[in-house]
Amino acid sequence: MNIAWERVIKPGIKFAVMLVSWPFWRFPVLNTMKREYVAVNSDRNGPFAMLMRWSFDHQFYKSNVAQRAALQDQFMGGDTGVTWADHYSSEPFPPDQNARYGDLKWSDVYRFVEILKDFLSRENYLFLQIGSSSGREIGYFAGLFPGSTFLGTDLYEDVCEFAASRYQLDNLDFVPCQAVDIAELIRNSAHRNVIVFSSGSLSYVFPEHVDEMFRQLSTLENIDRLILCFHEMGLTRNRPPDQVAGSLNVGNFTYSHNYRHYAGMNHIGVDERTSLIYPFITEENKRRHKDTCHYFFLSE
Ligand SMILES: C[S@@+](CC[C@H](N)C(=O)[O-])C[C@H]1O[C@@H](n2cnc3c(N)ncnc32)[C@H](O)[C@@H]1O
């Protein structure tokens, strides 16, 4: 029975699901129902939800860049993106000093806050955030450092408009721009000191685009200082995420990227504060994130 299950029944079911899932996910029919299962904020559980997500992930990760972008727009853009931004903005950033993240102190996990404040207190920068969503993080830094110029970017225009309506400061703007084009924004500006920051957004960027983004950033000219500061997640399932030659598929649109790898490929130095922070888990996310850690990356 075991052999029949492993060799015949299981592959048979997989094949049948794949056959049906290709047209099912590819064509925009039953979108409202599909979004309930695969939108990033879906809280559907149970065997049917698991089957839906499994078949979606299968379809998503085996598609090419253009097809993945279309699926991402279909399920992450529009109202879904704005709903998420609204959700993030309902949580204070940064939380109070004693806040915890699972077993850790919040400030030991989100190390970028003090590090960025230190950079910004020494010099004026063009500060760009990739995937700024709610705008709460860049809004916080913009409020503290009026001498620097802050530009929040996001894949979706609606999301940028939402952030702009929440955070109105003279030194802060929000523009739609995808991560792969971030170097172009820098090239078109007159600033010579630049910080590129991301918090939980590069995980949604396709590996092909992360690769190209690092390549483009490494070729910028007329820049005195370029700081890359990323707080993302890493997949720890088989080996630490900073030992992977590239990126891994995680599920639910996301990837675990090895930022050290992409930096090394493009001769970008890595600061010694770059680190993996364990555990990622909190009471609320322990089922979904049991094989996950925080990946803090800082360029030299
Ligand atoms: C998890 S949210 C970031 C939340 C943010 N740290 C906050 O606290 O508000 C990820 C954001 O990245 C954006 N995003 C996804 N892919 C992107 C890409 N390729 N380029 C730019 N932004 C992207 C999404 O639209 C989303 O708003």
What do you see in this structure?
The protein has 300 residues and is an alpha/beta fold. It has 2 domains: 2-76, no CATH class; 87-298, Vaccinia Virus protein VP39 (Rossmann fold), CATH 3.40.50. The protein is 44% helix and 19% strand. It contains 12 helices and 11 strands. The strands form 3 sheets. The chain has a 7-stranded mixed beta sheet. It has a two-stranded antiparallel sheet with strand order 1-2. β3 (126-130), α8 (136-144) and β4 form a beta-alpha-beta unit. α5 (78-89) packs parallel to α9. The longest helix is centred in the first third of the chain and has 25 residues, at 2-26. It starts with a helix and ends with a strand. The model has no long low-confidence stretch (mean pLDDT 91). The structure holds S-adenosylmethionine. S-adenosylmethionine binds at residues 81, 88, 130-131, 133-134, 136-137, 154-156, 159, 178-179, 199-201, 204-205.
Keywords, separated by commas or semicolons:
single chain; binds S-adenosylmethionine; two-stranded antiparallel ribbon; alpha/beta; 2 domains; seven-stranded mixed beta sheet
> Which regions are unreliable across 5 or more consecutive residues at pLDDT < 50?
none
Classified in CATH, the superfamily of the largest domain is Vaccinia Virus protein VP39
CA radius of gyration is: 20 Å
Largest sheet: 7 strands, mixed
- Order of helices and strands, N to C? HHHHHEEHHEHEHEHEHEEEHEE
Q: Kindly provide the name of the CATH class of the largest domain.
A: Alpha Beta
CATH architectural type of the largest domain: 3-Layer(aba) Sandwich
Q: Determine the CATH topology of the largest domain.
A: Rossmann fold
